[in-house]
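Q: Structure for this?
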Amino acid sequence: MRKPMKQMSFDEQLEYLKKGAVEIIQLEELRERLHQSIKSKKPLKIKVGFDPTAPDIHLGHTVILRKMKHFQDLGHDVIFLIGDFTGLIGDPSGRSKIRKPLTRKEIQKNAETYKEQFCKILDPEKTIVDFNSRWLGELGSEGFIKLASRYTVARILERDDFTNRIAANQPIAVHEILYPLAQAYDSVFLKCDVEMGGTDQKFNLLVGRDIQREYGLPPQIVLTMPLLEGTDGVEKMSKSLNNYISIQEPPGEIFGKIMSITDALMWRYYELLTDSSLQEIEKMKQQVDTGAVNPRDVKMRLAKMIITDFHDRKAAEEAEEEFKRVFSKGELPEEMQEKRLKCQPEPQWLPKLLVTLNLASSNSQARRLIEQGGVYLNGERIEDTNFELDLTKPEEIIIKVGKRKFCRLIIEQ
Amino acid sequence: MRKPMKQMSFDEQLEYLKKGAVEIIQLEELRERLHQSIKSKKPLKIKVGFDPTAPDIHLGHTVILRKMKHFQDLGHDVIFLIGDFTGLIGDPSGRSKIRKPLTRKEIQKNAETYKEQFCKILDPEKTIVDFNSRWLGELGSEGFIKLASRYTVARILERDDFTNRIAANQPIAVHEILYPLAQAYDSVFLKCDVEMGGTDQKFNLLVGRDIQREYGLPPQIVLTMPLLEGTDGVEKMSKSLNNYISIQEPPGEIFGKIMSITDALMWRYYELLTDSSLQEIEKMKQQVDTGAVNPRDVKMRLAKMIITDFHDRKAAEEAEEEFKRVFSKGELPEEMQEKRLKCQPEPQWLPKLLVTLNLASSNSQARRLIEQGGVYLNGERIEDTNFELDLTKPEEIIIKVGKRKFCRLIIEQ
């Protein structure tokens, strides 16, 4: 077993691993397995499955990566498992043009991209990247039949999305009910101690437990992590909802987006997107509650921590400086108003847009505000009264008008 | 295409193939495919699947073999397909000790036994024996997933026995829903024109049609044959119900059993167990109805035809002679009374048994009847008044007492 990076007592270790988890099935088993691991100096095997399609990781995805890191911090083996077996098949019915089979080369390339991105959080030296085609291909017709004999149709169909599709009279193809079994077999082959995933993966992870038992293995512990709320604080973070922060965004953009979230969401992000312990977070909360600390400063600290993860400390500090320069001290509102607009085919004249958004009373007042240097888009001062804004693509723009008026403009598809 | 053994007009051919079938899906397609085959001189491919377990063929099984013969008579290719893929797997859940996997050697041995038996009806030179492990093994994990993607769970679960099990809350293992797909894939690989089976196989045969379409092949024609009634004329012929005639039974026993069936069942047996055309059968029926012919003679003819199939003409004639000798002319009842007894741990004293069966009024009358040579068991005269009958195993015994009293004694488990 590698020397853990963090020196913690047993209880601290358990607390560290539990942090942010929605469910641990079963906690008692995790405690026991952790004990054994420490005693025998044999690291635990932690598996997390990833799609073989080209990744573009946003903060939502990093929740699970961070939990993997926590296990890594304590000296355990994490397996970044790329589910390429299904990817190599594509849409086997051949009906969808989108799910074309991927070539080995494409999968390898996607794996590289994953690695570039996950190594911002995980230690690349210590992360085992594996591909399930390695054993699922080998399994063969006979192995698949045997695997399929270990589970009942009824139990598979209990899965929420299957239940819903049955209720809606939507067809379920037979191969779809084989996939949870294939994923479960990954855990058999790898002899996993723990499998993690989002709460939406809970069913599949539990099948792994059952199937491991069927193959005479101790059942893996299932640990589910929440689906991170997007910057709107309501919906799950996703590209299509345009409420996400990609880990590849420039530092200034990440800073601005983090500063725009609510305080409640800020605590959530601390829990799920940083290594701060629950105790540390609780302490900050108390400081804010008693007025000892300005929540804005705690939020800036969060923004810097996140930027440090995906860029570096220097970039984080520069982003903070720039943000402070634009939104000079004391100006920053605790909450911003939020406006939504559909994408526009033509560029929009800024003064008119400010009126539409209720940030100016007339085009001429808007022009005057621009001339006076009081209008910022994403922290950048606009000085041209003829400025036209490109709203053809979904994005998020923070608009500042004068000293106190802020607006988060969300452009939607 | 081989030269057909029978020279028939197109309509006669179709009539010959239809004879006895419960359903043909679709008849129009069979007509068309038959036309094409004759025109192109390319024989049709007819598939029938058989269990890889050791066979002991009774008349019930010969119904489908005879239908295969009919196709063979017209020059088509029949494939005797042994479903060894599943046999090699056994009970994949490992829970049943009965369904142990078979070895290749065992399967080969069972195939030989099948051949010995089916060649009484089919032309062994013209019968293609094949094994589905040949292609189902090759299919691999990927092929199986692709196959599974071509069908929906809902449609598979519509199968009667699945529906019943769901209603009864009995579990269905996932591999069980893969088997109909595997069987359907046999038809894809073999490019079958026709698949036949008992009416209980209808669902599986229809899946073959669908899956062939999915793989871009013209769908096979499905032909179902009835499940033959046993000698009791009520239940399906089966070993466990002890109402069967094995093709390995001695000629005398087959003769006796056939003579014991009702007239109605006799016509059914003519239809399903002989090559007589419906016209020929109809003619005999009329002759019996008008009293021109004694039904007993028609039944004896049936018995001889069946014995000729499984032994030879000479054996059939000897069996007839022996039967006539014992049941001298005019004695044979149209119907026999039937009695059922459970197996007895101890041998039973014959006179007492005759009283129990109401064939004698007292033990002393029964003894007298035996002494006078008036008691026969299965056509064999019993002369010893101390005779004890072994009733430890299920069997059927025809008892004749005096000139007119007959009884079919069925010993049940």
